[in-house]
Design brief:
Layout lengths: L2 H14 L5 H36 L3 E8 L3 E3 L4 H10 L6 E16 L2 E11 L1 H9 L3 E4 L9 E5 H7 L6 E7 L5 E12 L9 E5 H8 L8 E5 L6 H12 L12 H8 L5 E8 H5 L3 H36 L1 H9 L4 H36 L23 H27 L3 H6 L1
Parallel strand pairs: 4-9, 6-8
Antiparallel strand pairs: 1-2, 1-10, 1-11, 3-4, 3-7, 3-10, 5-8, 6-9, 7-8
Helix pairs in contact: 1-12, 2-10, 2-12, 2-13, 10-13, 12-13
């Protein structure tokens, strides 16, 4: 029997017995929907953490300068040399971002109220404007007005200050020698960000912040390199570290946040530079992401067990009810092997229908979940994109889920297929 006839026969049999397969279809569809919705949501949350960290720290691989003199400050005085080393090392970053940072030494004042700032970032607007235009502003916008003595503040800061767009706020920082310095800015935008990255931070121009801190105009605190592909950041970090270590005083290679904190607190004087990937910054939330993935794996295994249990009992019952029909076609001359192939095609077509329906059902699940508000969960905004829970339906995740479910289903249906197709014909016709 030609393969085309087998396929047509399996489709005819499936259509004729479709009502018997409805329960199996529902089980497979629901299992695939739950598995896919869970894995894509966890993947989406992981991507959102990475995107939030990208915006907050501005880069995939970093060179951070630390100076210990009269006081400890984040400072790079020879950025041009570092950029030349990056170029000579063969790197072709999609974008290079220089930022100045005043860390935990600043306050914003407005109408008699002050809010301490953990992060005050000095940015180059021409370089970063496209990234800021992707953010959600609850008031104001990312426009060139920022260059006109502007400041972007996060939503928690605006709430505590009761400040709005076009209000004048006073920024106070400590200079590199420890004196206090102030400058008035105009609020140009309020960024929606209630995550752990968003609390108590603001953005001003790098030129203005350098002036406030007493830095030279070309100074910065960090150099961030953005790459189109970010799957080999540790390898890129090692290459850059090797290129820089013969020129500058570098800290030891950094693999996680604890290494970073330990080296910053180490006893040294003068300048020391640190080279590390973005994952070092977000290692503080990696344990939470790992826990979320374990939960998704638990649901994954649970749905697989439910699917196997349901399929084992139901499919055996269906084949038992069809045993007379299967025995008849064998009497008419269909070989045992061909009978198995027809039944396999039936199962494959049923599986494809279940996967397609399950994919649409998972889209419905994730859409419903995205409609809920998660503002009441402290710090959960870190996992959201523009305030909403998002799912990442990548081809890799979809293909993996289909493959795992298929490999789970095939043994469950193949064994009873094999048994019924090779059973004694006389006994089969008597059932």
């Amino acid at each position: 029997m030609k393969i085309g006839y087998k396929i047509l026969l399996s489709i005819k049999y499936l259509a004729g017995h479709f009502r018997r397969y409805i329960f199996l279809l529902v089980v497979l569809c629901f299992s695939f929907a739950v598995i896919t919705a869970t894995t894509t949501i966890v993947e989406g949350m992981t991507e959102n953490v990475f995107l939030a960290a990208e915006n907050h720290y501005a880069g995939h691989v970093f060179v951070l300068g630390y100076e210990k003199d009269k006081r400890s400050v984040l400072r790079i005085t020879d950025s041009d040399t570092i950029l030349n080393v990056v170029k000579n090392a063969g790197f072709k970053p999609a974008k290079t971002v220089l930022r100045t940072l005043s860390y935990n030494d600043a306050s914003l004042y407005f109408s008699g109220v002050s809010v301490k700032q953990k992060y005050v970032y000095g940015i180059d607007w021409q370089v970063e404007q496209d990234d800021f235009k992707k953010l959600t502003f609850i008031d104001g916008e990312a426009s060139d007005d920022f260059n006109n003595n502007g400041i972007f503040i996060s939503e928690p800061v605006a709430h505590n200050l009761q400040a709005r767009v076009n209000d004048d706020v006073l920024l106070e920082v400590q200079t590199k020698t420890g004196q206090k310095n102030t400058l008035k800015f105009i609020v140009r935008g309020i960024i929606r960000d209630s995550s752990i990255f968003g609390f108590f931070k603001c953005f001003v121009s790098r030129t203005s912040l350098n002036m406030l801190l007493g830095y030279d105009e070309s100074d910065c605190s960090s150099i961030g390199l953005f790459f189109k592909k970010n799957d080999d950041l540790f390898e890129k970090t090692d290459i850059l570290y090797t290129a820089l270590e013969n020129i500058f005083s570098l800290g030891d290679p950094i693999k996680n946040r604890e290494d970073f904190t330990e080296q910053i607190r180490a006893d040294f004087s003068g300048f020391r530079y640190f080279v590390f990937p973005l994952s070092v910054y977000i290692s503080q939330v990696s344990d939470l992401l790992t826990a979320m993935k374990f939960i998704s794996y638990f649901l994954y295994v649970l749905m697989i067990i439910i699917a196997i249990s349901s399929l084992t009992v139901t499919y055996r019952l269906i084949l038992y009810e069809r045993s007379r029909e299967i025995g008849t076609v064998r009497v008419l001359g269909m070989q045992s092997w061909n009978t198995q192939i027809v039944l396999v095609f039936e199962s494959v077509f049923l599986f494809l229908v279940a996967v397609i329906a399950g994919l649409f059902l998972s889209l419905l699940f994730t859409w419903i979940l995205s409609m809920f508000s998660y503002e009441s969960i402290p710090g959960f905004d870190l996992f959201l994109r523009k305030g909403k829970l998002t799912a990442s339906y990548t081809p890799g995740i979809i293909f993996t889920n289909i493959l795992i479910l298929l490999l789970t289903v095939l043994p469950v249906v193949w064994i009873p297929m094999f048994n019924i197709s090779r059973a004694d014909i006389v006994n089969t016709l008597r059932k």
